[in-house]
Amino acid sequence: MKKPWLIYALVTTGFWGVWGAFAEFPTRHGFPETLVYVVWALTMIPPALYAMRRVGWHIMRDSKSILLGSLIGFTGAGGQMLLFHAVHTGPTYLIFPIIALSPVVTIALSMVFLKERVSKVGAIGVVLALIALPLFNYSPADDTGAASAAGGVQAVTWFVYALIILLAWGVQGYFMKLANGSMDAENIFLYMTLTSIVLIPVALWMTDFSVPIEYGWQGPGLAAITQILNAVGALTLVYAFRYGRALVVAPLANAGAPMITAVISMIVLGATPNSVTIVAIVLASLAAAVLAIEPEEKLIEQPV
Fold it and tell me: Whole-prediction pTM value?
Protein backbone atom coordinates (compact mmCIF):
# COMPACT_ATOMS: atom_id res chain seq x y z
CA MET A 1 0.00 0.00 0.00
CA LYS A 2 1.68 3.18 -1.19
CA LYS A 3 -0.41 5.63 0.83
CA PRO A 4 -1.63 3.88 4.00
CA TRP A 5 -1.89 7.24 5.78
CA LEU A 6 -4.58 8.38 3.36
CA ILE A 7 -6.69 5.30 4.08
CA TYR A 8 -6.25 5.80 7.83
CA ALA A 9 -7.08 9.51 7.58
CA LEU A 10 -10.18 8.91 5.49
CA VAL A 11 -11.38 6.19 7.88
CA THR A 12 -11.00 8.60 10.81
CA THR A 13 -12.77 11.42 8.98
CA GLY A 14 -15.66 9.23 7.87
CA PHE A 15 -16.03 7.32 11.14
CA TRP A 16 -15.89 10.46 13.30
CA GLY A 17 -18.23 12.34 11.01
CA VAL A 18 -20.89 9.61 11.17
CA TRP A 19 -20.31 9.01 14.90
CA GLY A 20 -20.84 12.69 15.68
CA ALA A 21 -24.07 12.84 13.72
CA PHE A 22 -25.64 9.89 15.56
CA ALA A 23 -23.99 10.29 18.99
CA GLU A 24 -27.18 11.68 20.55
CA PHE A 25 -29.53 8.95 19.31
CA PRO A 26 -29.10 6.47 22.23
CA THR A 27 -29.98 9.18 24.75
CA ARG A 28 -33.03 10.10 22.70
CA HIS A 29 -34.27 6.55 23.17
CA GLY A 30 -33.86 6.62 26.94
CA PHE A 31 -30.28 5.43 27.40
CA PRO A 32 -28.51 7.82 29.85
CA GLU A 33 -25.45 9.70 28.64
CA THR A 34 -23.49 8.32 31.59
CA LEU A 35 -24.11 4.78 30.35
CA VAL A 36 -23.18 5.87 26.83
CA TYR A 37 -19.82 6.81 28.34
CA VAL A 38 -19.50 3.30 29.80
CA VAL A 39 -20.17 1.78 26.39
CA TRP A 40 -17.60 4.11 24.79
CA ALA A 41 -14.95 3.16 27.34
CA LEU A 42 -15.53 -0.53 26.63
CA THR A 43 -15.33 -0.01 22.87
CA MET A 44 -11.84 1.42 23.38
CA ILE A 45 -10.58 -1.98 24.54
CA PRO A 46 -10.50 -3.89 21.19
CA PRO A 47 -8.53 -1.15 19.33
CA ALA A 48 -6.15 -0.89 22.30
CA LEU A 49 -5.51 -4.65 22.27
CA TYR A 50 -4.86 -4.52 18.53
CA ALA A 51 -2.43 -1.61 19.00
CA MET A 52 -0.53 -3.31 21.79
CA ARG A 53 -0.23 -6.53 19.82
CA ARG A 54 1.49 -4.54 17.08
CA VAL A 55 4.21 -3.46 19.52
CA GLY A 56 4.64 -6.88 21.11
CA TRP A 57 2.61 -6.04 24.23
CA HIS A 58 5.34 -3.68 25.40
CA ILE A 59 3.85 -1.39 28.08
CA MET A 60 5.77 1.73 29.09
CA ARG A 61 5.67 1.87 32.90
CA ASP A 62 8.15 4.63 33.73
CA SER A 63 6.85 7.53 35.81
CA LYS A 64 6.94 10.03 32.94
CA SER A 65 4.89 7.81 30.65
CA ILE A 66 2.37 7.10 33.41
CA LEU A 67 2.01 10.82 34.19
CA LEU A 68 1.68 11.99 30.59
CA GLY A 69 -0.51 9.04 29.63
CA SER A 70 -2.83 9.74 32.55
CA LEU A 71 -3.07 13.45 31.75
CA ILE A 72 -3.88 12.68 28.12
CA GLY A 73 -6.39 10.04 29.11
CA PHE A 74 -8.25 11.95 31.80
CA THR A 75 -8.58 15.15 29.77
CA GLY A 76 -9.82 13.12 26.81
CA ALA A 77 -12.16 10.89 28.80
CA GLY A 78 -13.48 13.81 30.83
CA GLY A 79 -14.29 15.64 27.62
CA GLN A 80 -16.01 12.55 26.25
CA MET A 81 -18.16 12.19 29.36
CA LEU A 82 -19.30 15.79 29.08
CA LEU A 83 -19.77 15.48 25.32
CA PHE A 84 -22.36 12.74 25.72
CA HIS A 85 -24.36 15.09 27.97
CA ALA A 86 -23.83 18.03 25.63
CA VAL A 87 -25.28 16.25 22.59
CA HIS A 88 -28.32 15.38 24.72
CA THR A 89 -28.97 19.05 25.44
CA GLY A 90 -27.88 20.74 22.21
CA PRO A 91 -27.62 20.30 18.42
CA THR A 92 -24.75 18.12 17.24
CA TYR A 93 -24.38 20.15 14.04
CA LEU A 94 -23.24 23.08 16.19
CA ILE A 95 -21.41 21.28 19.01
CA PHE A 96 -18.92 19.36 16.87
CA PRO A 97 -17.71 22.34 14.80
CA ILE A 98 -17.11 24.20 18.09
CA ILE A 99 -15.03 21.48 19.74
CA ALA A 100 -13.05 21.16 16.50
CA LEU A 101 -11.45 24.47 17.50
CA SER A 102 -9.51 22.84 20.36
CA PRO A 103 -6.16 23.57 18.63
CA VAL A 104 -6.65 27.20 19.77
CA VAL A 105 -5.98 26.01 23.32
CA THR A 106 -3.06 23.82 22.21
CA ILE A 107 -1.48 26.82 20.49
CA ALA A 108 -1.97 29.04 23.55
CA LEU A 109 -0.37 26.50 25.90
CA SER A 110 2.52 25.97 23.50
CA MET A 111 3.17 29.70 23.34
CA VAL A 112 3.17 29.99 27.14
CA PHE A 113 5.05 26.85 28.16
CA LEU A 114 7.11 26.00 25.07
CA LYS A 115 7.80 29.66 24.21
CA GLU A 116 6.58 29.18 20.66
CA ARG A 117 5.48 31.98 18.39
CA VAL A 118 2.32 31.67 16.40
CA SER A 119 2.83 31.94 12.65
CA LYS A 120 0.71 34.05 10.32
CA VAL A 121 -1.22 30.92 9.40
CA GLY A 122 -1.91 30.17 13.05
CA ALA A 123 -2.92 33.77 13.71
CA ILE A 124 -5.47 33.60 10.89
CA GLY A 125 -6.89 30.41 12.37
CA VAL A 126 -7.18 31.95 15.84
CA VAL A 127 -8.95 35.02 14.46
CA LEU A 128 -11.40 32.87 12.49
CA ALA A 129 -12.10 30.82 15.61
CA LEU A 130 -12.70 33.90 17.76
CA ILE A 131 -15.12 35.24 15.17
CA ALA A 132 -16.94 31.92 14.81
CA LEU A 133 -17.46 31.03 18.49
CA PRO A 134 -19.89 33.83 19.49
CA LEU A 135 -21.87 33.32 16.29
CA PHE A 136 -22.78 29.77 17.34
CA ASN A 137 -24.85 31.11 20.23
CA TYR A 138 -26.71 33.63 18.07
CA SER A 139 -30.41 32.79 17.95
CA PRO A 140 -32.77 35.52 16.73
CA ALA A 141 -36.26 35.41 18.19
CA ASP A 142 -37.92 35.22 14.78
CA ASP A 143 -35.86 32.24 13.62
CA THR A 144 -37.59 28.86 13.95
CA GLY A 145 -34.71 26.66 12.80
CA ALA A 146 -31.48 26.56 14.76
CA ALA A 147 -32.90 29.02 17.27
CA SER A 148 -35.62 26.63 18.33
CA ALA A 149 -33.07 23.84 18.68
CA ALA A 150 -30.76 25.93 20.82
CA GLY A 151 -32.80 28.59 22.49
CA GLY A 152 -33.27 29.90 26.03
CA VAL A 153 -31.36 28.48 28.96
CA GLN A 154 -30.63 25.27 27.06
CA ALA A 155 -28.65 27.26 24.49
CA VAL A 156 -26.34 28.54 27.22
CA THR A 157 -25.97 25.03 28.67
CA TRP A 158 -24.83 23.19 25.55
CA PHE A 159 -22.65 26.12 24.48
CA VAL A 160 -20.83 26.15 27.83
CA TYR A 161 -20.41 22.38 27.66
CA ALA A 162 -18.94 22.68 24.18
CA LEU A 163 -16.46 25.32 25.37
CA ILE A 164 -15.36 23.13 28.30
CA ILE A 165 -14.83 20.18 25.95
CA LEU A 166 -12.88 22.46 23.61
CA LEU A 167 -10.66 23.40 26.57
CA ALA A 168 -10.20 19.81 27.74
CA TRP A 169 -9.28 18.47 24.32
CA GLY A 170 -7.00 21.44 23.67
CA VAL A 171 -5.12 20.60 26.87
CA GLN A 172 -5.06 16.96 25.82
CA GLY A 173 -3.48 17.94 22.50
CA TYR A 174 -0.73 19.81 24.33
CA PHE A 175 0.11 16.87 26.60
CA MET A 176 -0.09 14.50 23.66
CA LYS A 177 2.59 16.51 21.91
CA LEU A 178 4.81 16.33 24.99
CA ALA A 179 4.26 12.57 25.20
CA ASN A 180 5.17 12.04 21.54
CA GLY A 181 8.75 12.88 22.44
CA SER A 182 9.12 9.87 24.73
CA MET A 183 6.20 7.49 24.09
CA ASP A 184 4.99 5.51 21.11
CA ALA A 185 1.47 6.05 19.78
CA GLU A 186 0.26 2.61 20.89
CA ASN A 187 1.09 3.28 24.53
CA ILE A 188 -0.54 6.70 24.39
CA PHE A 189 -3.70 5.01 23.13
CA LEU A 190 -3.36 2.34 25.83
CA TYR A 191 -3.32 4.96 28.60
CA MET A 192 -6.28 6.71 26.97
CA THR A 193 -8.14 3.40 27.19
CA LEU A 194 -7.11 2.64 30.77
CA THR A 195 -8.11 6.07 32.08
CA SER A 196 -11.47 5.88 30.32
CA ILE A 197 -12.10 2.54 32.06
CA VAL A 198 -11.03 3.98 35.43
CA LEU A 199 -13.80 6.59 35.15
CA ILE A 200 -16.53 3.99 34.54
CA PRO A 201 -17.44 3.78 38.28
CA VAL A 202 -17.87 7.57 38.28
CA ALA A 203 -20.23 7.35 35.31
CA LEU A 204 -22.22 4.56 37.00
CA TRP A 205 -22.41 6.58 40.21
CA MET A 206 -23.78 9.56 38.26
CA THR A 207 -26.46 7.41 36.61
CA ASP A 208 -30.02 7.69 37.90
CA PHE A 209 -31.16 4.06 37.85
CA SER A 210 -34.55 4.98 39.36
CA VAL A 211 -35.83 6.19 35.98
CA PRO A 212 -36.76 3.86 33.09
CA ILE A 213 -33.70 2.95 31.00
CA GLU A 214 -33.68 1.49 27.50
CA TYR A 215 -31.53 -1.64 27.64
CA GLY A 216 -32.38 -2.91 24.15
CA TRP A 217 -30.76 -2.31 20.78
CA GLN A 218 -31.91 1.31 20.72
CA GLY A 219 -29.95 1.91 23.92
CA PRO A 220 -26.65 0.09 24.49
CA GLY A 221 -26.83 -1.54 21.07
CA LEU A 222 -27.00 1.73 19.19
CA ALA A 223 -24.45 3.25 21.56
CA ALA A 224 -22.00 0.43 20.85
CA ILE A 225 -22.38 0.83 17.09
CA THR A 226 -21.74 4.59 17.20
CA GLN A 227 -18.99 4.51 19.81
CA ILE A 228 -16.94 1.81 18.08
CA LEU A 229 -16.72 4.27 15.19
CA ASN A 230 -15.32 6.80 17.66
CA ALA A 231 -12.79 4.37 19.14
CA VAL A 232 -11.54 2.92 15.85
CA GLY A 233 -11.36 6.43 14.38
CA ALA A 234 -9.07 7.48 17.22
CA LEU A 235 -6.72 4.57 16.55
CA THR A 236 -6.64 5.09 12.78
CA LEU A 237 -5.82 8.75 13.42
CA VAL A 238 -2.78 7.62 15.40
CA TYR A 239 -1.56 5.62 12.42
CA ALA A 240 -2.49 8.36 9.96
CA PHE A 241 -0.09 10.68 11.78
CA ARG A 242 2.55 7.96 11.92
CA TYR A 243 2.63 7.31 8.18
CA GLY A 244 1.45 10.65 6.76
CA ARG A 245 2.07 14.37 6.92
CA ALA A 246 0.31 16.30 9.66
CA LEU A 247 -0.18 19.10 7.13
CA VAL A 248 -2.72 16.91 5.33
CA VAL A 249 -3.96 14.55 8.04
CA ALA A 250 -4.84 17.12 10.71
CA PRO A 251 -7.18 19.28 8.59
CA LEU A 252 -8.99 16.16 7.40
CA ALA A 253 -9.73 15.04 10.95
CA ASN A 254 -10.19 18.42 12.64
CA ALA A 255 -12.31 20.08 9.97
CA GLY A 256 -13.56 17.29 7.72
CA ALA A 257 -15.21 15.15 10.40
CA PRO A 258 -17.17 18.01 12.06
CA MET A 259 -18.34 19.21 8.67
CA ILE A 260 -19.63 15.70 7.87
CA THR A 261 -21.33 15.65 11.28
CA ALA A 262 -22.97 19.01 10.65
CA VAL A 263 -24.27 18.06 7.22
CA ILE A 264 -25.59 14.62 8.25
CA SER A 265 -27.17 16.03 11.42
CA MET A 266 -28.98 18.79 9.55
CA ILE A 267 -30.27 16.27 6.99
CA VAL A 268 -31.39 13.72 9.60
CA LEU A 269 -32.91 16.30 11.94
CA GLY A 270 -34.39 18.36 9.14
CA ALA A 271 -32.96 21.47 10.81
CA THR A 272 -32.64 24.74 8.90
CA PRO A 273 -29.98 26.90 10.56
CA ASN A 274 -30.18 30.65 10.21
CA SER A 275 -27.66 32.39 8.00
CA VAL A 276 -25.50 33.44 10.95
CA THR A 277 -25.22 29.84 12.14
CA ILE A 278 -24.24 28.67 8.67
CA VAL A 279 -21.50 31.32 8.60
CA ALA A 280 -20.32 30.11 12.03
CA ILE A 281 -20.10 26.49 10.82
CA VAL A 282 -18.13 27.51 7.73
CA LEU A 283 -15.76 29.77 9.72
CA ALA A 284 -15.20 27.06 12.35
CA SER A 285 -14.39 24.50 9.68
CA LEU A 286 -11.90 26.86 8.03
CA ALA A 287 -10.38 27.74 11.41
CA ALA A 288 -10.05 24.06 12.36
CA ALA A 289 -8.27 23.32 9.09
CA VAL A 290 -5.85 26.22 9.53
CA LEU A 291 -5.25 25.56 13.22
CA ALA A 292 -4.64 21.88 12.57
CA ILE A 293 -1.75 22.81 10.31
CA GLU A 294 -0.22 25.30 12.74
CA PRO A 295 0.26 23.31 15.98
CA GLU A 296 1.33 20.06 14.36
CA GLU A 297 3.85 21.60 12.00
CA LYS A 298 5.23 24.04 14.58
CA LEU A 299 5.19 21.81 17.63
CA ILE A 300 6.88 18.90 15.93
CA GLU A 301 10.05 20.92 15.65
CA GLN A 302 10.18 21.67 19.37
CA PRO A 303 12.41 19.62 21.65
CA VAL A 304 10.66 18.01 24.59
Answer: 0.79
